[in-house]
Structure formats: C-alpha cells, structure tokens
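REQUEST ID: PR-0412
SUBMITTED BY: lab tech R.K.
PRIORITY: routine
TASK: structure prediction, single protein chain
INPUT:
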Amino acid sequence: MPVSATLAANDTIARRRAAGLPVVPLGFGEAGLPVHPLLAAALADAAGHGSYGPVAGIPALLDAAAGYWSRRGLPTEPSQVVAGPGSKPLLWAILGTCRGGVVLPKPSWVSYAAQAAMHGRDIVRIRSIGGVPDPAELDAVASGLRLSTVIVTLPDNPTGLLAPPSVIRDLCAVAERHDLLIISDEIYRDLTVGDFLSPASVSPDRVVVTSGLSKSLALGGWRLGIARFPDASLRSQVIDLASEVWSAPAHPVQVAASLALSEPPALVEHVARSRLLHHRVASAVASAFGCPPPDGAFYLYPRVAGFSDDQAVADHLLSRNGVVVLPGSSFGDDPEACRIRVATSQLYGSTDVQREQALDSDDPVALPWIAEQLDLIREALR
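STATUS: complete
OUTPUT:
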C-alpha cells in the first residue's frame, strides 16, 4: 500500500521548498493557521502529566466532548464518547469492529478505502451528493450485497460541498431499511457555511459521529480525535481495540482539548474568523478555476479539460507551474473525469505573523502574499 496521497502531496511541497523551487501548495488539507495562545498555554501547563490515563480519554475531555455535541443538538453523555490520537485512528478502529461491505461516496477522502482494505472489507462506491452516497442508488444495490457500513463526510472532502438536509433524511431512511451503520465524519462541521444536518439527529441509534481539532482549530499535529457512539457495545469494542493499539491519547493534549471543546468565547470567535478566512480565500480560488465556492472547509473539485486523465492535469500543473494538486482518482473518481482536488488552506502565509494578519483582515485576498499566490494560480490556468 503506498503512502496516503494527501501526505505524499505534503512531502512534495516540502521537497520543492527545500530545493528552492516555486510551489503553490494546493495539495494538502492542513488548516494552515497559528495555534491559539489559550490552547498553547493549556498544553504547556499540562506538560507535567506523563501518565497514560484511561483508554477512552480523561473524564474532563469526555465531558467537554459531550457538551460540544449537546450544544449542536445532539444530546450526548460522556459515556458515549471515545477520544483517540486523531480522528483517523478512530475511524480505523470503528471499521475494524464491523463486518460486511463498506459504502463510500464517489469521490471520497483517500483514507476511507485504504482503511477498509486493511480490514479486508469489500468497498462499494456510489455517486456522491455532497459527501453522501446517493440514497436512491444505495437503496437499489443494498439488497443484493452484503453491506454493513456507510461513510459520509459533512461537508465533503474532496468536493467541498455539503449534502442538503433532504439527502441526509433519505440516506437515514435507506440505512433503516437495510440495517446499515452510518459513520458521519464531521470534522469540518464548524467550518460550514451551509445548512448542516447531522445524520445522528435523524437516526440517533445507528450513527457514529467523528470529529477532532485538526481543522477548525488547526491542531493537526496534536493528534486528537473524538467519536460519539450510539450504543455501549460498539463503543466497548473500539475501546478494546484501542487498548491494544494506542493505549491512550497524549495526556497534555487531552487537557488542552478539554479546554477547546468547552468552547470559551475567545475560541468561538477564533473559529468564526477562521471559517470566514477559509471561505473568502477558497471562493477567490474557485473564481480562478471557474467552479462554485465550497459549502464548507477549504476544498474545491474543478474539472480541467484538455487532458487525457486527471494525473496528466496534476503532473502538468506541477512541472510547468509548481502548483501542487491531487488527481480525483486518488479519491476513487474516474481518471478520465479530469477532476482535481484543490486545497486552499495553505495560502495564508509562510509565517505566523502573516497568518494572523490574514485572520484579522477584512479583505485577505488583497494581502500581498495571498494575492501573489492567486496570480500564480491564474497564470498556471492560462
């Protein structure tokens, strides 16, 4: 199995920068913003905690996560929550507890299919509607296949689109008919500008929700994810698996995450500014590509005509212009569709000072370092 396409893109960016080559970093979906001082201080204050702690997470973190979801209309008890070293390991553990085929949107985030394959699960791809497999198509094929799990991403990576509430309700109805577990990856929820409905609000007894700190608070390197379980049995199985794989998330990070998920006003305001910055810059890049702006997060999924396949598009942009993007086929799409995944979240500056200025600006796309990157993208497309 090769290295994840998104992480490989990040390596490409780093190599080009180290070699002094031009690079426009549109390949890796890192949130690209400074750590908030409140969280940095909380992590530093907790640095003396060297103990393992409970496998599921420290009580303060489970309580804070329960409050986080409850404030979003998903009443949650701490006993429903598990924390892990990132949402990716939690997704892997959840998939490891189930049997039967896994249904993915087409396209969908690169790691879903890879993780399902690691567990020996059959994979069925169905046309995506904003990160959700088309419920009508799913209903048509579910009776003839041994399926158990559907994964959705709200809002979506790679397309940046958000399934409307009507599609969510239809999906839940199909899942009820065919007794399917829904895993709802909502790590971009707080960066959404559209009308958000979680499947857990519709079918609370068959939906696992995953989230984390890597996107809304730009803490990807801290590796902290959370999952909300509908029943004790599935949660217990994941805890058992976690006990043999990661033992417990890093204790100081859990302390800082407890603060983050309790959502003090300063962090709420920080996330709101981040959401606005992501949307403004992504919308400007979308205009350059001639595609709609995202409903959330910082991804675009344009089609680039005139090439044999999507890899040819990505290779051309990189070799001729230093623009790093990912081909849609990395996300399970048809290569001949010539779609590419564009991540705009690393355009905010090369230093924390520039990134803070981008957060504070009423017109971030006019800042010289962002405007320069936008000009490079437009020139590459010309």
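NOTES: Residues 49-262 form a domain with the Aspartate Aminotransferase; domain 2 fold (CATH 3.40.640.10).
REVIEWED BY: pending
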